[in-house]
Amino acid sequence: MTIKTIREDFPLIKNRGISYLDNSATTQKPRVVIDALKNFYENFNANAHRGIYKLSEDATAKLNESREIIARFINADPEEIIFTKNATEGLNNIANSIERSLEIDKNHNIVATILEHHSNFVTWQQLAKRAGAEFRIADYDDKKHELKDISNFVDENTLVVAFTGMSNVTGIIPDAKSIIQKIRKKNKNVLIVIDATQLVAHKRINVKELDVDFLVFSAHKIYGPSGVGVVYGKRTILEKINPFQYGGNMINRVELYDSDWAELPDKFEAGTIDTPGIFATGVAINYLEKNFSDLERTEKELTGYMLKELRKIPQVRILGHNSTNKKGNEYRSVVSFITTNVHPHDMATICDQSNVCVRAGHHCAQPFMKRMGITATTRASIGMYNNREDIEELIKAIKKAIKIIG
To answer: Is 357 in the active site?
Structure first.
């Protein structure tokens, strides 16, 4: 499909007449996803796993179909896919389940990186704080634009290592496979968690090839609906740890003074989950996979074009985006920049006046911002429906802001 054809699949892009470049925050939804939600509510709406009547069984079948699609998408088993409201809830559930299942004390340490979104930073910071464990932070070399070797922070007492699959600030993609291999050599029993919320829309993921223990992402960043998060967990680990949330569907037996849990994946899905949204997520993934090659080509072309045009503007400084370096890091379609004398919030406001949507702020990554000596950036991020005209409108808006303020 061409970009023009793909753009026609997204009603909001057509209806609003905007250059939408905030895809790292959330993506727009193709017509097939919107129709899937309508289709479910009109033809399949019932509480999955609850009824023995045909309508409930149909809803359960749709839920199971989507779980299989999502599992296949990342090369997992369906029983290893857990649904949450979003990736943030998924990370918190992992941390709290680990806390309830393992003895954690001052002799242990937990490792994260300075790049992390708050969801994959504060979650582990606070677990370490509650347990009295050491919280270690792998740093970033802002001159070489490289994440420092995470394995250097790992020892025999490391319990968890959590790192991003792709920074939502600079677009850097650490070499996850190499990182995990190095970590395993230092400590084969460490639990490794990847926040793939940004990565999953841009690069194919194979959880078994990576040998990762947990991986999370959100549907709304892969052209699916809001309100659906996905947690992958290795079956052998999920079977050993205890659930964090209790309630309906996740129990096997309840007695007056004791209970035990259902089999996977139900064990970790307490209460009524968003079956319509999960059904639409499966549709979104099928759409993404169908257009993945076009997406990669679009990203490469437009990111290169954006960087080329931004570098022509003397007042603009781009964060990151060097070429692939010796450590195997690469960059994708997230571009953050700062502009001399123009605050990012002012830049975003003037862009909005030109019908260009960009993000301004710390991007829920305050430690990373402080590490780079800044408080905020303007961020433009590319989706499959973007085109050269969107980038041209962005560049014109930036020049306008500089002329007005700078």
So the answer is: no
